[in-house]
Amino acid sequence: MIRKLSFLAITAIMSLGMNAQEINPYVSFVQGQTTSPFDYLTLKIKQYNVVSLGEDHWVKDHMQFLADYLEHVASDTTFHIDALAWESGNSIDQKKADTLMMSKTFREDLALQILRNAPDTYGWPYKEALEDIKALWRYNRRQGKFTRLLLLDPPYMLQLLDGDKYEYTLSRDQSTANKVSAYVGSNRKVLYYAGSSHTMRQFHASYNSKSGMYNVQATAGKILSVLYPNRVFTIKLWGGLMGSNGYIPTMNDSRWEQCGDGLADKAFQSNGNRPVGFDIAGSPFANILISDFFHFQYSEQMLNKSNGSPFRAEETLGDRIDGIIFFRAVNDFSIPHIEPKIFDDTFIKRINKRTKGEVQTHNDVYQYIKKGHPTLADECDKYIRIK
Predict the structure, then answer these.
(1) Of 129, 101, 103, nearest to 115 (Cα)?
(2) Helices (H) and strands (E) in the chain, counts
């Protein structure tokens, strides 16, 4: 049943120039949600063995949310997070991560090394990511019980990045699922923090023109939900598309585009952008088509039923996630800060090899990041010295 809209909501809708009948279901639903983001996340961690928290890369606010949450629950002994499953680190550094979490003082040197070995050409060089690791260390100290920083990337990823010989073992997602599922089997709690393309229940697929078939891999979120359908809960931190500065090319220079047609964002706005967490089952959010949400059209090839394609025109957001946490409007998001200490001379040499000589100096690494992700340009410019 649709709740009667408040006078303020109706006024907000009119001021936004929106069709009240079109936005009504979103506004009505959002107004009926009263659980704060931190309380919502805590509730789900208590109920499930694995809570996947899908973030958007290159958004400071999402990284900051994780650190703030760990600080918020550090003194709450009614439950315990046994592991923070962390996308931005390689399993070769697991002993370093364990040493760091058990250390009486925060070992920044170990944290920086973990971030250097993240699965990107220049690591994961963000101060907010370093703060996430530090927040988990503080969580360990105040809980008085060990919480593992569970590093997820398989070792071959570093060999691949460094141009060395490597033996492909498992996909990144399969490796993640294997590590996390071990915790479910022993009835422990995992907070899985990674990009939404890994946490959501979906398939990654590429077309092989030679065979005429799709190569398909399931995400960690998909694998875990199949293995443990009643023990895994998937939440998306509300965000936006990365625009021309990230994964999805656009014709404008905005950092983040609103997902879908923007009606959901306008509903949050009409509700005063009040932070809230909620299940999407039975809500208008669950019915948003994936193609509409991510602004793309299916090709005839993608919808062919004889070539192994996993794509379905009728796939909805409700097929991929269970809940949403909204805590800030997309237009208010900001870029992360770079931590220059990550780029020591040894790491610059590794990046030089990875970029086939393009990066030779500290200046070069910031130019390289800026070229690949213009959304980070303002931050990179702080460290580029004019010759």
Answers:
(1) 129
(2) 17, 11
Confidence of residue 374 (pLDDT cuts 50, 70, 90): confident
Token pair of 383, please?
């460290």
Closest CA to 258 of 274, 277, 242: 242
CB atoms within 10 A of CB 159: 15
Cα 237 to chain center, whole Å? 8
Distance CA 345, CA 341 (A): 10
Write the single-letter amino acid at 377.
Answer: A
Residues 77-96: pLDDT tens digits? 999 999 999 999 999 999 99
Q: How is 6-55 classified by DSSP, letter by letter? A: PHHHHHHHHHTT--HHHHHHHHHHHHT----HHHHHHHHHHH-SEEEEEE
Give the closest residue to 6 by CA, choosing from 36, 28, 33. 28
Facing residues of 365 across strands?
A: none
Question: Tell me: the pLDDT tens digits for 283-313?
Answer: 999 999 999 999 999 999 999 999 999 999 9
239, 55 contact by CB (below 8 A): yes
